[in-house]
């Protein structure tokens, strides 16, 4: 089954919107459940929705379940562990005093994922895609609410600080996970891309639930108990997380990860555009420059990749 060439674009935008909702729900849960508990919510409460999606794909599309192989299992294991670590690191960044700087550096994921995709999967990196990645990354870093008076100096001088290093590590983890999930889907061979994406997602979320849930049971079972008690608040995070992941996996089964993650930066633009700050405060020249660079990067990756 061959996907339309343009299909990855609306699917990626849908993933960005769902991820924005998931991040908001997960952020509210962190004070109640802690960093690891909020991370477990994403996988535990997302798994039932991922299973429903797999069943819908199989029933509506008439696709048979694929047979996993060692390459598939290896990619899923690597990606699952990397994503758990990256999610925990990102939530830890948000708890830092200078979380904005760390969040800005977490956006280097786009650069890292392009390199990982080239090295591990041989995904081509065209000149246009490289330019789009550069424009998008610099633009989104300028939009991060760091030092308003000296943003460029803060970015350059602050990369060795604890928040920045945590952000870079988080970006690396997400980059490895994204490339690994595409590798897992491709390892299923001739499986249709909707089934490859859905099957990979279920395998990953099941493994992540077992790994993180089991580790927390040994480390501090009270965290798992709190996660179970907060099921009403956690369902929204699980639903949005599964929706975002379903869209990410589908897009990455179609298109190289570097293109998908570059377009995914539209999430930052959406959040910034609808924020109260945009309407109530004057937009600085640096922020305008960041928005322009981001728009240029998004245009390049969708039109001239």
Poorly predicted tracts of residues: none
Please report the distance between the alpha carbons of the first and last residues: 23 Å
The backbone outline, from C-alpha atoms, is: globular
Largest sheet descriptor: none
Please give the share of residues in helix: over 70%
- Annotation, overall tally of beta strands: 0
What integer value in Å does the Rg equal?
19 Å
Q: Which percent range describes the beta-strand content?
A: under 5%
Q: How many individual helices?
A: 14
Average pLDDT across residues?
A: 85
Whole-number tally of structural domains: 1
Order of helices and strands: HHHHHHHHHHHHHH
Structural category is: mainly alpha
For this entry, give a set of tags.
305 residues
Please tell me about this protein's structure.
- The chain is mainly α and 305 residues long.
- It has one domain (8-125, 151-254).
- It is 82% helix and 0% strand.
- Helix 3 packs antiparallel against helix 4 (99-106), helix 3 (70-95) runs antiparallel to helix 8 (162-187) and helix 6 packs antiparallel against helix 14.
- The longest helix is centred in the N-terminal third of the chain and has 37 residues, at 8-44.
- The protein starts with 7 loop residues before the first helix and ends with a helix.
